[in-house]
Write a sequence for this structure.
């Protein structure tokens, strides 16, 4: 069944872009007693980008900048407050129940905490059967065949033995492989991996990232790899976006971004990282000095200006920069310095 | 699932769970025996009372009580005209038939009653019957002489005339050679004869006679004021109690759980409505409502079951389940399930409910006897099912007949013991399960 891939490749009305996100906002209303509004969390605040079929993009940003909210919105788990989301040419919010379900088969989801992502009371066999059952694959033999193939693909062998285990009987790395197998089972066109290795042992991070990279290449998947750790992006993705305070501040091909960062925040991230090829890459790094911006009362103008060493008084704190200055051909930056 | 398998394997290590399981197995076996040995309709019919029980003594104690006291109390003895030869004598226009029923009476105490049941077959003219009692010492006592109807009886022990002739109640006077008025007459043991002389006026007329000398003890559980064998009610009370307890517990637990999960899953106004309904329902008293329905409408056990379940749905359990389910709702695996397209119903039933089932099982097991007790309480209050024999109804009858005042302890003790046994069995199992499935309790 190559339906998802075929749909992705022949996406009508667009030139190879699988996912088009345009001016996406996801705000959360904070309420007291269920009705009194006490504030709005602007978790995703005007994000635009496109993702081509088979393209891997990293989303980088410090904790609380809205990366997961963006992922959940893309997965249809949060309703966007505003903006448009086109997948394979169709607008997500206009999909009916059946189409939304079909969309969900096309998007795989790999979460941060592999143990939490697996229902603890189900055997691996059952966990992997669930998406297939939900998507109407009734024949047990067919399900088992697909489960087996998926387990083998993510390097869990022998499949029969693993299938009989409960999540707590597996190591963290094995759990994350099961999660990846589940994400691949429905033969998606796109994978969203939200910090897939940040809770794993340093020793297995590279393995899991390599696995993700391999399946992404083999299936020509679009991959949105979310991370707070710039050091893990280089070898695994084509492009990278840097998020700050609910907005994308810079996006570029990953080599260009790492070599010629255009936004002061990206620069700060990189300098905090030191040598991205260092042997101990993967250890949590200090983020740039200063506090992460509040998403309830974000700073005026450019959200980075209170922490920015190059902030131009009378400019940066007044007007938010548009997201698409192009100081270099491959770069798109939201910074007045690059006007 | 290993969690269950481990749990069940652990049961063996808790003696209380083993004992509880044994008790429950015993009750189950009893219940199965009861429904197979006495079909439902048969049990209902039997419990209505009547002729089926006419050969049993009234308020007889169980046989074992006599064993404890020394084994003097008489058992019930019957003698039928079918088993003896009939002497015939032709009187011309009529015919005299003499039947002699023999009763061997070896007991140290007097019978509780003596009845002679007669069935006459005739066309027009009723036969005329005269009855004598012949004691082992040869003494003959005339009892009664009269025409006999189709289904007739000589209630010998109720015969006032005989009583005044004998100077004792007939069931005593007929079985002693003591002087009238003796305070504590002794039983004259030996073989007694009841001589039935019948004059038939028709060629084909027949008389069938059954003599019943009622004992003071009967069966394993005794009899009640309507001669009914309590074994029927105690046996049949078991499946009724278990079914009521189990169905009510399942009904309330399952619906409560699903509603709690639905509220937690959908949140918002759905959750708010469920919460408010629960709060209102919690303060509604269950027993008075049941009493009201029982008094005004019907006391059918199935109606009561329905009401218990309906009122049990929005019970305090919802609050407990909700607090357990709220963190589960946030679990990443639920988000994952949504992401691959699982429906709300599937998430509730397959992802949220199973997660708290282990915690629920012990509560569920201990809930069963509370509903058994509820049903018994209703029956004791006189709101038992009108047709089914239940433990509670036995208790109700015992209370109505002042059983304890009259010393019929067995009448109260057996159903109470069964109720307590049920409570004990489920409670022992439930507490052990609680420790197994909620390990935090284990150290307590
Ligand atoms: N359902 C929600 N309701 C209200 N606020 C939310 C909700 N989900 C996320 N937030 C808030 O939105 C902000 C962004 O959260 P998000 O999880 O997207 O950040 P993140 O970049 O993924 O951070 P991390 O690196 O810690 O995962 C946070 O302040 C968070 O508290
Ligand atoms: Mg996150």
């Amino acid at each position: 069944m190559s339906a998802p891939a075929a749909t992705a490749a022949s996406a009508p009305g667009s030139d190879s872009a699988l996912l088009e996100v345009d001016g996406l906002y996801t705000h959360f209303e904070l309420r007291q007693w269920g009705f009194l509004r006490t504030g709005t969390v602007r978790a995703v605040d005007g994000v635009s980008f496109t993702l081509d079929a088979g393209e891997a993009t990293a989303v980088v940003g410090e904790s609380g900048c809205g990366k997961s909210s963006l992922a959940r919105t893309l997965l249809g788990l949060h309703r966007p407050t505003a903006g448009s989301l086109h997948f394979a040419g169709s607008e997500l919010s206009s999909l009916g129940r059946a189409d939304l379900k079909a969309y969900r088969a096309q998007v795989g989801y790999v979460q941060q905490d592999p143990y939490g992502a697996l229902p603890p009371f189900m055997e691996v066999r059952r966990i992997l059967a669930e998406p297939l059952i939900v998507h109407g694959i009734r024949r047990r033999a067919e399900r088992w065949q697909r489960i087996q193939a998926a387990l083998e693909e993510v390097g869990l062998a022998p499949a029969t033995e693993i299938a009989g285990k409960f999540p707590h009987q597996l190591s963290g790395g094995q759990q994350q492989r099961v999660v990846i197998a589940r994400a691949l089972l429905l033969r998606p066109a796109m994978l969203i991996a939200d910090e897939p290795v940040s809770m794993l042992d340093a020793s297995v991070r590279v393995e899991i990232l390599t696995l993700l990279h391999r399946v992404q290449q083999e299936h020509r998947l679009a991959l949105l790899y979310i991370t707070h750790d710039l050091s893990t992006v280089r070898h695994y993705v084509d492009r990278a976006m840097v998020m700050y305070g609910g907005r994308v501040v810079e996006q570029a091909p990953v080599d260009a971004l790492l070599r010629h960062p255009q936004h002061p925040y990206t620069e700060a991230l990189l300098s905090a990282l030191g040598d991205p090829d260092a042997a101990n890459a993967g250890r949590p790094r200090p983020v740039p000095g200063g506090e992460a911006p509040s998403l309830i009362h974000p700073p005026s103008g450019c959200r980075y200006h209170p922490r920015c060493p190059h902030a131009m008084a009378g400019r940066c704190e007044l007007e938010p920069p548009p997201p698409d200055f192009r100081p270099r051909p491959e770069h798109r930056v939201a910074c007045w310095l690059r006007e | 699932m290993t969690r269950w398998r481990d749990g069940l394997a652990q049961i063996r290590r808790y003696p209380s769970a083993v004992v509880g399981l044994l008790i429950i197995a015993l009750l189950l076996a009893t219940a199965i025996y009861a429904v197979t040995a006495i079909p439902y309709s048969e049990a209902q019919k039997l419990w209505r009372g009547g002729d089926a029980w006419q050969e049993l003594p009234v308020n007889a104690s169980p046989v074992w009580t006599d064993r404890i006291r020394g084994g003097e109390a008489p058992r019930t003895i019957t003698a039928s005209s079918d088993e003896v030869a009939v002497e015939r004598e032709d009187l011309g226009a009529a015919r005299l038939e003499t039947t002699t029923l023999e009763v061997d009476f070896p007991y140290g105490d007097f019978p509780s009653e003596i009845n002679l049941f007669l069935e006459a077959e005739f066309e027009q003219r009723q036969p005329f019957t005269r009855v004598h009692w012949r004691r082992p010492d040869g003494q003959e006592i005339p009892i009664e002489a009269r025409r006999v109807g189709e289904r007739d009886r000589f209630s010998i022990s109720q015969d006032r005339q005989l009583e005044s002739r004998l100077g004792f109640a007939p069931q005593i006077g007929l079985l002693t050679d003591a002087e009238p008025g003796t305070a504590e007459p002794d039983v004259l043991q030996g073989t007694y004869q009841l001589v039935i002389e019948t004059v038939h006026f028709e060629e084909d007329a027949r008389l069938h006679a059954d003599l019943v000398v009622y004992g003071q003890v009967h069966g394993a559980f005794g009899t009640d004021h309507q001669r009914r064998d309590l074994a029927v009610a105690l046996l049949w009370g078991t499946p009724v109690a278990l079914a009521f307890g189990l169905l009510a517990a399942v009904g309330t637990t399952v619906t409560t759980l699903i509603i709690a999960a639905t509220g937690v899953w959908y949140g918002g106004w759905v959750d708010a409505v469920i919460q408010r309904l629960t709060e209102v329902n919690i303060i509604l008293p269950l027993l008075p409502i049941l009493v009201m329905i029982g008094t005004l409408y019907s006391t059918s056990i199935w109606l009561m079951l329905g009401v218990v379940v309906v009122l049990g749905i929005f019970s305090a359990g919802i609050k407990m389940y909700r607090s357990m389910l709220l963190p589960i709702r946030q679990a990443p695996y639920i988000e994952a399930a949504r992401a691959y397209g699982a429906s709300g119903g599937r998430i509730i039933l397959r992802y949220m409910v199973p997660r708290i089932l282990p915690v629920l099982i012990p509560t569920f097991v201990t809930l069963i006897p509370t509903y058994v007790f509820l049903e018994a309480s209703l029956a004791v209050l006189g709101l038992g099912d009108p047709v089914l024999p239940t433990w509670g109804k036995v208790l109700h009858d015992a209370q109505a007949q002042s059983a304890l005042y009259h010393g019929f302890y067995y009448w109260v003790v057996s159903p109470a013991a069964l109720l307590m046994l049920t409570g004990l069995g489920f409670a022992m199992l439930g507490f052990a399960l609680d420790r197994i499935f909620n390990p935090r309790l284990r150290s307590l």
Residues 173 and 203 of chain A are 9 Å apart (CA to CA). Chain A touches chain B at residues 34, 72, 75-77, 100-101, 104-105, 107, 109, 111-113, 116-123, 130-131, 134-135, 166, 179, 182, 186 (CB under 8 Å). The pocket of magnesium ion (ligand 2) is lined by residues A 67-68, 194-195 (CB under 6 Å).
